[in-house]
Amino acid sequence: MNLESQWTVYRTRFLVRARQLTEPLVFTDALGREQSGRPGDYLVESADGIRRITRQVLFEDIYVPLTSTQLCPPVTRVQAGVPGDGAPGVFARPIARASPEDRIRATA
């Protein structure tokens, strides 16, 4: 199997990357379990990087591929700082969380 082929992103409750096997594959995963698959099965990589094999019938019953527009939502005018009414744009900024020491001082 050409492991350099393109990954496709799929979703269930969690996002995973997967590719369909074109030839048999056997390997030991990060947890020490032997994984084996036949052509048509899927090599699935979870967000934490763990790879496993899922049988084709099960995979195609559970997972739904995401389109490229679902992966990278378009930037809206407000996100770009150019709202339609000419008012200043609203930009999302990360929220700084107070350290435990700051929380103690704030409540004292």
Description:
This protein has 108 residues and is an alpha+beta fold. The chain is built from three helices and seven strands, in the order E-E-E-E-E-E-H-E-H-H. It has a five-stranded antiparallel beta sheet with strand order 6-5-2-1-7. A two-stranded antiparallel sheet has the order 3-4. A hairpin with a 5-residue loop joins strand 5 and strand 6 (51-54). The termini are far apart.
How is this fold's topology laid out?
Elements: E1 8-11, E2 15-20, E3 25-28, E4 34-37, E5 42-45, E6 51-54, H1 56-62, E7 64-65, H2 68-71, H3 100-107
Q: What percent of the residues sit in helical stretches (DSSP H or I)?
A: 10-25%
Largest sheet: 5 strands, antiparallel
Distance between the first and last residues' Cα: 63 Å
Please indicate the percent range of residues in DSSP E strands (runs of 2 or more).
25-35%
Mean pLDDT: 75
Q: How do the strands line up in the largest sheet?
A: 6-5-2-1-7
N-to-C SSE series? Answer: EEEEEEHEHH
The computed structural class is alpha+beta
